[in-house]
Amino acid sequence: MKPIRTSSRALATAPAFDARAFLDSAGIEKTIMKYEKGDTIFTQGDTCDDVMYIQGGCVKLSVLSKTGREAVVAMLEPGEFFGEGCLAGQPTRMGSATAILPSAILRVGKEKMVELLHEQHTMSDRFIAHMLARNIRIEGDLVDQLFNSSEKRLARTLLLLARYGKQDRPVRAVPRVSQETLAEMIGTTRSRVNFFLNKFKKQGFIEYDGEMPLKINSSLLSVVLHD
Question: Is the entire prediction scored with pTM above 0.90?
Answer without folding.
Answer: no
